[in-house]
């Protein structure tokens, strides 16, 4: 029994030294390698979620535009017609057709850019310019249009 007590006490003394600088550096290198692999995946997942969110917003705005059309007999000249009373439509409201978050003054896509709304000959096109906020693009920077939904 004394033999085992001696082993336990000598290993306990050795463990009290703590970690060496090399051991700490190895642990930090492992954590850094894992982070380098995972962080880009999280960014990609966030961009993918924003594309889906933009498609959902476009669907909601299309529905609001159809309600506006039902009440007014035409589509609004600008998207602000969905959020603020339109004097040219006697049946507007009483609630906004599209409710915005917080203190927004325009209807914005998930990247913070206003949706592009074009009205031609009684037909409309609605699109988000994607992550880059510019026409065209590919991947997450590609335009998302109501014509694609």
Short description:
The chain has helices at about 1-15, 20-70, and strands at about 115-120, 125-130, 145.
Structural class: mainly alpha
Spatial order of the strands forming the largest sheet: 1-2-3
Residue-averaged pLDDT = 86
Strand content: 5-15%
Give a verbal description of the structure:
With 149 residues, the protein is mainly alpha-helical. The chain has a single domain, classed as 2-Layer Sandwich (Glycoprotein, Type 4 Pilin). It is elongated, with a radius of gyration of 29 Å. The model has no long low-confidence stretch (mean pLDDT 86).
Task: Give short descriptive properties of this protein.
149 residues; three-stranded antiparallel sheet; 2 helices; 3 strands; elongated
Blueprint of the fold:
Blueprint: H1 2-15, H2 21-72, E1 116-120, E2 123-128, E3 144-145
Antiparallel strand pairs: 1-2, 2-3
